[in-house]
Design goal:
alpha/beta; 20% strand; Nucleotidyltransferase, domain 5; 5-stranded mixed β-sheet; 14 helices; Arc Repressor Mutant, subunit A
Length: 403
């Protein structure tokens, strides 16, 4: 049985870890650099306590000091604090239907390395695809190690159902993958065996990146429905900046909402996914989606007309599906990402019109339809951010001796 002294030490250790995490979170999440005094004021911790915690975080390579800033009142200049750069990295990976990629971020949000490969992965061989991804990730991880950047871990975004309780990918319909132990496949590569990836749905991770970007810019409320337009259509619910995952982590599969029960192809994904839009626009299915943007902007009148009709029809289907979602979850903003962001100006009106017509509370609380602000391939960014949050949650594991 632990002694009273042991219990006291354990409580002190937990309190120290909590305070370290609280301090680091304030520095990383602040839109403007904070001084030690401002961190103390915002956390309720004593100034002397914050000074000691910050010194440890600086020694650990998690926080850096910026140039002092003169103050109007008497006293020493304030020293702003910011997340450290190029010391610790999170690595986000993604397999989607038409690309795979790897991106590494540091605590400051700087992209340290990136590799994206455009490739059609419909009905692909998992071993081949995951082998290619593992080799790209190993190259990125090797580069980080050579630059003396510590790797906090890796995360992989997948376009399907990932069981957050037991781990495997249950199904990725457009890849034709089912009940696959993705982690075991990737860990055949020694570099990833040292940093086994956590798995998550690509729309959930993209929504995490969007919430993070909106915190940085100050745009939009912290709660919204995120829609990721790709070959498949994913979605996520963001509540006060956090992703609502559901019991298994399977929430947000908006692409499988059924809009037409009279046909076999009546889901939102089959009516408004990339393939459906390209087909309706008379463009090659599986080709570069940027071709649609070119037709909309510069095509012959007949081609432009067909393309615009295809996009408007997709917007109407998307609006109907989103009205169903919003009537259930009562959120006031829809954020369109992925290819819907690329087509935002062409379909936003159709989406908004359907929401206004079909959401029961719209007359009293109109809904906002916004373009995503996170940069391209947000799921990779979201994966890297998810990894870095583990550093923020438990910074004690990263401490180095002072001096």
């Amino acid at each position: 049985m632990p002694s009273r002294d042991d219990a006291q030490v354990a409580r002190q250790d937990r309190m120290r870890e909590h305070n370290l995490s609280l301090t680091l979170r304030r520095v990383v999440d602040s839109r403007i650099p904070l001084s030690r005094a401002q961190v103390a004021a915002s956390t309720g911790l004593a100034r002397a306590t914050v000074t000691g915690l910050v010194d440890q975080l600086i020694a650990a390579g998690l926080v850096r000091e910026l140039d002092p800033v003169s103050q109007q009142r008497a006293g020493r200049p304030a020293v702003p604090l910011a997340p450290a750069q190029r010391t610790v990295a999170g690595v986000g990976m993604e397999v989607n239907v038409d690309y795979l990629g790897v991106r590494a971020l540091d605590l400051a949000g700087t992209v340290l390395a990136e590799h994206v490969e455009k490739v059609d992965l419909r009905a692909s061989d998992p071993a081949d695809v995951l082998g290619r991804l593992a080799r790209s990730a190993a190259e990125v991880l090797g580069g980080l190690e050579a630059a003396d950047v510590r790797v906090a871990g890796t995360a992989l975004a997948l376009p399907g159902l990932v069981d957050r309780v037991t781990g495997p990918l249950r199904v990725a319909p457009n890849l034709h993958w089912r009940d696959l132990d993705v982690v075991a496949e990737l860990c055949r590569e020694p570099a990833l065996a040292a940093h086994p990836p956590r798995l998550a749905n690509e729309a959930n991770l993209a929504a995490r990146a969007e919430a993070h970007a909106r915190r940085d810019t100050g745009d939009g409320p912290p709660s919204f429905v995120y829609v990721s337009g790709e070959v498949g259509i994913g979605g996520a619910l963001v509540l006060d900046g956090e992703i609502f995952l559901g019991r298994h982590g399977w929430s947000g599969e908006i692409g499988h909402i059924v809009l037409d029960t009279c046909t076999e192809s009546g889901t939102l994904e089959e009516l408004a996914g990339q393939d459906a839009i390209l087909r309706a626009a008379g463009l090659p299915v599986g080709g570069a989606f940027d071709a649609l943007r070119d037709v909309l902007d510069h095509g012959e009148p007949a081609a432009q007309g067909r393309a615009r009709a295809a996009v408007r029809a997709a917007g109407r289907s998307l609006g109907v599906a989103l009205a169903n979602v919003v009537n259930v979850v009562d959120l006031g903003e829809i954020v369109l990402g992925g290819t819907f962001s690329l087509l935002f100006d062409d379909l936003q009106h159709e989406v908004a019109a359907e929401l206004a017509r079909r959401v029961i509370f719209a007359p009293w609380s109109p809904l906002e339809v916004s373009r995503a602000v996170a940069h391209p391939y947000p799921a990779m960014t979201g994966g890297a951010l998810a990894v870095l949050r583990t550093v923020i949650a438990e910074p004690g594991a990263w401490l180095r001796p002072v001096g």
